[in-house]
Design goal:
By secondary structure, the chain is mainly α. It has a 3-stranded parallel β-sheet. It has a single domain, classed as Metal-dependent hydrolases (TIM Barrel, Alpha-Beta Barrel), CATH 3.20.20. The radius of gyration is 16 Å and the shape is globular. α5 links the parallel β2 and β3. It is 51% helix and 7% strand. The N and C termini lie far apart (32 Å).
């Protein structure tokens, strides 16, 4: 959260519009909150973020990707599906944290994707988004 906030309020995405950022080892549950909170704070403290030409949410959606590990396991599966929808499948990268004992199997994520992400979108989350970001020919 601190890294994302620092990058946004310091205008790094505006200074380097071709640079993509990948957030690892933090899961997804915090991302919608941070997008919306940064939108509010930056709008009411405009003088403190003079480099921003767009809302924080727009920079996050355009230039940030989020690794899924550790995948959240709410009691109500619909909540994780809502988080995935808010963050956007186009911004997600499957991460397992293998070989750690508590790694995330691809099925742990795919069970949430199956409900509201079409098959092609699931493929992008599980491999395509990473291949595109890292310019891998797979």
């Amino acid at each position: 959260m601190l890294t994302l906030t620092s990058l946004i309020v310091n205008g790094t995405p505006e200074k380097f519009p071709g640079l993509n950022f990948i957030m690892l080892e933090a899961g997804l549950g915090w991302v919608p909150y941070m997008m919306y909170r940064l939108n509010k704070e930056c709008s009411i403290r405009r003088a403190e973020v003079p480099l921003l030409e767009k809302s924080p949410e727009e920079y996050i959606r355009d230039q940030f990707s989020f690794a899924t590990q550790p995948i959240g396991e709410p009691n109500n599966q619909v909540h994780m599906e809502q988080i995935i929808d808010m963050v956007g499948p186009e911004s997600l990268l499957f991460a397992s944290d293998y070989p750690h004992w508590d790694f995330d199997h691809p099925d742990a994520l795919d069970k949430h994707l199956q409900s509201n992400v079409p098959k092609e979108g699931r493929k992008k989350v599980l491999s395509g988004n990473a291949a595109e970001l890292f310019d891998l020919d797979i």
